[in-house]
């Protein structure tokens, strides 16, 4: 559908990062299916409260749009309801902001029930405060970016209906979350979460390490739903490796809010495997974005291993700005240096082991197996009340069975 969208991308440039951000916006627009016919930037130190860009610049966009027969203008930041109304009146085309565009891509990608609910919730929460009194007549645009809901549904634009729908979707998400919580508490192995900027190579690495056969593609936000696979580490330990949605700069709070359940999994991981595209011109900005998001979701205090990916594309004279003992240069695509990466994962994951002493009753003997699988056992003794085990045990197992600690 959006193949009929001819878009102009526009934004304000205050510094080099903004320039990169607008380039990325262009890529996002293409990813959503639009044809980008022009790029308009304004060098300015502040945003205009009425038009976001200056009014003169907005007029210029209107003229360019007419000449190039564009039918939408996509802005690099989120717009206030006032800015949207003013821009719509002046330019007389569909006005799309950065979050609407990202969510449109998400809407096309969402496959799981949870993914679809999360996307629709984020879309509605973004749309609601931006509906003008008359309601945005989305239909006049004949579909296209910002009008798609997940699973081919059309976004509803009636305020009352939207509010009802939002509370319904929140309840549905809660239900899924509750059932997953049960699942998670039943897990036997430590969890490693792949995190990173979109298109860094997380899914490719997941496939290389586990034969997961998840989709990997050279496009932004290819992965939306979380996939988890068993990973066998070189020391024989087992862990669960989990691939999830990528991050992007200016990640809007509606998305963070709606994807809380997904992001919470990252928060509960035992180790983060951060994948960064070492061949990206924006390497530093991207890695900073990832750290910022991790901080926002309070997942920045975990053991972390950083995989600098796509080294096959890097000129060998290039010196990476990151160098620490937790950093490994790899190529997920050509399976280069993955042994070293796994070794690092092992070292850092074992930091989560602590000394513990359990007394497991005889009717709960399956727990003894789980403890064996997740620790280094020093002694095991059969007592009248149960089996006494001592050892260096994974922290998540200790927390899970703390009722049986001595
Ligand atoms: N040259 C090279 N390309 C790679 C490497 N790893 C991944 N790629 C390519 O990078 C692109 C993105 O890879 P994905 O694995 O889909 O990236 P992702 O991080 O899962 O991306 P999203 O799910 O969109 O957030 C694909 O075209 C991969 O083939 C690598 O080591 N070297
Ligand atoms: Mg992916």
Automatic annotation (TrEMBL):
Domain Hflx-type G: 190-353
Keyword Kinase part of the UniProt annotation: no
A UniProt-annotated Pfam family: MMR_HSR1
PROSITE patterns (UniProt xref): G_HFLX
Domain of life: Bacteria
Binding-site positions, Mg(2+): 203, 223
GO-annotated cellular components: cytoplasm
Main localization, broad class: cytoplasm
Protein localization: Cytoplasm
Cofactor: Mg(2+)
Xref: InterPro entries: G_HFLX_dom, GTP-bd, GTP-bd_M, GTPase_HflX, GTPase_HflX_N, GTPase_HflX_N_sf, P-loop_NTPase, Small_GTP-bd
Molecular-function GO terms, alphabetical: GTP binding; GTPase activity; metal ion binding; ribosome binding
Binding-site list for GTP: 196-203, 221-225, 243-246, 309-312, 331-333
Keywords, ordered alphabetically: Cytoplasm, GTP-binding, Magnesium, Metal-binding, Nucleotide-binding
Function comment: GTPase that associates with the 50S ribosomal subunit and may have a role during protein synthesis or ribosome biogenesis.
NCBIfam families xrefs: GTP_HflX, small_GTP
Similarity annotation: Belongs to the TRAFAC class OBG-HflX-like GTPase superfamily. HflX GTPase family.
Record text on subunit structure and interactions: Monomer. Associates with the 50S ribosomal subunit.
Protein name per Swiss-Prot or TrEMBL: GTPase HflX
């Amino acid at each position: 559908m959006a193949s009929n969208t001819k878009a102009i991308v526009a934004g304000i440039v205050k510094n080099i990062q903004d320039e990169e951000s607008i380039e990325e916006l262009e890529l996002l627009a293409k990813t959503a299916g639009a044809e980008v016919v022009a790029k308009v930037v304004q060098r300015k130190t502040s945003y205009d409260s009425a038009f976001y860009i200056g009014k003169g610049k907005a007029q210029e966009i209107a003229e360019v749009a007419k000449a190039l027969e564009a039918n939408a203008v996509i802005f690099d930041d989120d717009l206030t309801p006032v800015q949207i109304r003013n821009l719509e009146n002046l330019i007389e085309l569909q006005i799309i902001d950065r979050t609407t565009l990202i969510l449109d891509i998400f809407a096309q990608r969402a496959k799981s029930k949870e993914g679809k609910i999360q996307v629709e919730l984020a879309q509605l929460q973004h749309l609601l405060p931006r509906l003008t009194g008359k309601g945005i007549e989305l239909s006049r645009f004949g579909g296209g970016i910002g009008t798609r809901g997940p699973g081919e549904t059309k976004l509803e634009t009636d305020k009352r209906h939207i509010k009802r729908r939002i509370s319904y979707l929140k309840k549905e998400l809660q239900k899924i979350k509750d059932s997953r919580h049960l699942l998670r508490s039943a897990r036997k192995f430590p969890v490693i979460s792949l995190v990173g900027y979109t298109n860094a190579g997380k899914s490719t690495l997941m496939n290389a390490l586990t034969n997961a056969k998840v989709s990997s593609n050279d496009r932004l936000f290819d992965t939306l739903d979380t996939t988890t696979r068993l990973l066998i580490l070189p020391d024989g330990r087992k862990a669960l490796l989990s691939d999830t949605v990528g991050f992007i700069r200016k990640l809007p709070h509606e998305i963070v809010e709606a994807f809380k359940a997904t992001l919470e999994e990252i928060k509960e991981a035992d180790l983060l495997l951060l994948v960064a595209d070492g061949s990206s011109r924006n390497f530093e900005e991207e890695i900073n974005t990832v750290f910022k998001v991790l901080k926002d979701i309070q997942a920045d205090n975990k053991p972390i291993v950083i995989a600098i990916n796509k080294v096959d594309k890097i000129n060998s004279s290039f010196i990476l700005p990151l160098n620490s003992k937790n950093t490994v240069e790899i190529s997920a695509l050509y399976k280069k240096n993955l042994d070293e990466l796994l070794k690092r994962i092992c070292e850092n994951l074992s930091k989560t082991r602590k000394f513990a002493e359990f007394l497991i009753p005889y009717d709960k003997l399956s727990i003894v197996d789980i403890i064996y699988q997740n620790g280094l056992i020093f002694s095991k003794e059969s007592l009248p009340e149960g089996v006494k085990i001592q050892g260096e045990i994974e922290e998540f197992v200790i927390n899970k069975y703390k009722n049986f600690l001595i």
